[in-house]
Amino acid sequence: RADHSQDVQERFGHDPAGNLLMQDRPGPDVVAGNRLISQGDNHYDYDAFGNLIRERCGKGHQLVTEYRYDCQHRLIGVTTPNGQSASYRYDPFGRRISKTVDDITTEFFWQGDKLIAEHHKDKHRSYIYEPDSFRPLIMLEGYGPKEAKPHHYQLDHLGTPQELTTPEGEIVWSAHYRAYGEISRLDIGKVDNPIRFQGQYFDQESGLHYNRHRYYNPDIGRYLTPDPVKLAGGINGYQYVPNPTGWIDPLGLNTCPGGDGCNQRSKIENPPEQLQVDEHSPSPPTPQKNRSYLYRGDSRDPEEIFEKGFESRGESTDLYLHSVNNASPPSNFVPTSTSRKQALVFASGFGFEEGFLYTLKRIPGRDVNKELGTRSKHKNELEIAIPGRIDSKHILGASPVNEDGTYKGYTILNPNREYP
């Protein structure tokens, strides 16, 4: 439940996989394989990769919004029920560099993962952020230091803009939000402000929020496409965050507690388990506990692994000899890693073959670096050695990997996996 000012209240439900069910809306919510199929009068269609391609609503489902994607599953076009079309372009890093709506093109400029400016024929805007953060600080409108007009962001505890003010203190933009980020009431709109949740940019033509690696629909509280980080993002690839009043996802990849929770410097000084939304609410769950997985790179086909699991090579229980060469003598440990990046190296055969990245539940094992200390031969592998074997039920899925360590296609879920 979310309680807003002026006695406005929202109620939600969730299924075991974390799919959001809007309890304050008419009609049932139908979810299959974590894909929202229908919600009240709205119906949703997907392509073979799980990308939302069509939304149908209205009488006879005649109001249709269509979405188009490129080969990397990035949204490149939207057509709305009124016939308006929009197209989007990206740079090699996957950052959106332009959008064209009704023949008007807006260009976007980046510094790393932060949007720092946008430009089209009628306007130019620049954005300044708090240090080491996605929290917006100032929006500058106009060209150059003489013409640019500063507007200062006033944020809530999550870093979401509540107001824009001039240096003289005049409020030129003010809004109220629903829990999942949709504006419920625009109180003042003398200037346009597209910044929403941290890392999100509002597209007026579609109602979507561009969230760096994906597009987010605040009306239904879900992403249009599955998580690009596969199972590392959890079993539900469409979920935004566990709790939108206390968590954020600036990149559309991984969640973290709100406020300064995504600030790397603040994580050192204030670990996530010490953060609270406010003093009267319980601490949000820590990402370490909810997002803890093991990874293993392997060339064998998922059909075999999902059936048999992973077996150790032999009977040797000497952890040091295992860390040197687990084939001689044959080790009784199955190597895994806490690092997805390191597991990808093994999945690609060190750059010589295609393979699979297997994601596993965090099961008990021996921390090689911790136990061997300075005797550990490959500290960078961050190995957790699992004694004996890894049962199939602990393997969540497999992601196909190219020779260069990049992903190809989508994750294959293990039908024999054990749910939490």
UniProtKB/TrEMBL annotation:
The keyword Repeat applies. Residues 11-227 form the Teneurin-like YD-shell domain. Residues 1-25, 273-298 are annotated as: Disordered. Keywords: Repeat. Residues 294-415 form the Pierisin-like domain. It comes from the Bacteria. Pfam families: Scabin-like (PF22596), TEN_YD-shell (PF25023). Residues 1-14 have a biased composition (Basic and acidic residues). The keyword Repeat applies. InterPro entries: Pierisin-like_dom, Rhs_assc_core, T6SS_VgrG/RHS, TEN-like_YD-shell, YD. PANTHER family: PROTEIN RHSA-RELATED (PTHR32305:SF15), PTHR32305. This is Type IV secretion protein Rhs.
